[in-house]
Amino acid sequence: MRAYLMIAGMWVRSTMAYRASFVMTTFGSFATTFFDFVGIMLMFSRVDALGGWSLPEVAFLYGLSGTSFGLADLVIGSMERLGRRVRDGTLDTLLVRPAPVLAQVAADQFALRRLGRVVQGLLVLGWSVARLDVDWTPLKLLLMPVMLVSGCGIFCAVFVAGAAFQFLAQDASEVQNAFTYGGGALLQYPPTVFARELVRGVTFVLPLAFVNWLPATYVLGRPYPLALPEWVAFAPPLVAVACCALAGLAWRAGLRSYRSTGS
């Protein structure tokens, strides 16, 4: 963590040297994700419900997914550049430094402008909570921050596992993006609009459903399409820990298999 914070702090100081540029790029990040939600609002201008879910309920899913993914992208989104480093041999430079390679890759080119995505997700989440007709119990209130932190952890694990795969594929950032950015986009919509096979896949294989689908159905009082027991809504922290542990093992295996470019 110390190495990560030092490298990230260096990039933040570099970014703040050009504050006007930082403000414009942050606003650009905010606007880009905002238009994603505008598309959903335009869809609801023609329909009253999507898969049986109202606009505030879909916005609730969107806000949870967008905020969780935005935090993970802010903290560890630079992992997607690993394939390029493997291909051109610049990863060798990180190997000889007295700091963990994972911390160096994760903090490389730390982009504070990604806060725009986090802010946009939080705004949509706040708007949805204000519009929802939910009986807010202490347990449901406690589940809200747990969902965001656990969702961030699950997405971080996907980023690291995708980077570990790039040790073998050398440059497969688009494959990794299919599971990170693609997974974030998938979770913005209710599970009822997808085939049951896909819902099973993101529940039992790549457990992205624990980011928002499962806990959100408990908060909203809706049944989950796979008829799972209610207690699984409180499993995201355990799933996040398990995913991070597996991603760590994959990272160590990938790093041990690295043989440089030979040049």
Automatic annotation (TrEMBL):
Membrane spanning residue stretches: 21-44, 59-77, 114-130, 142-165, 198-219, 231-251
Pfam families: ABC2_membrane_6 (PF06182)
Protein origin, superkingdom: Bacteria
InterPro entries the record matches: ABC-2_transporter-like
Key words, A-Z: Membrane, Transmembrane, Transmembrane helix
Protein's recorded name: Transporter
Organism: Streptomyces yokosukanensis
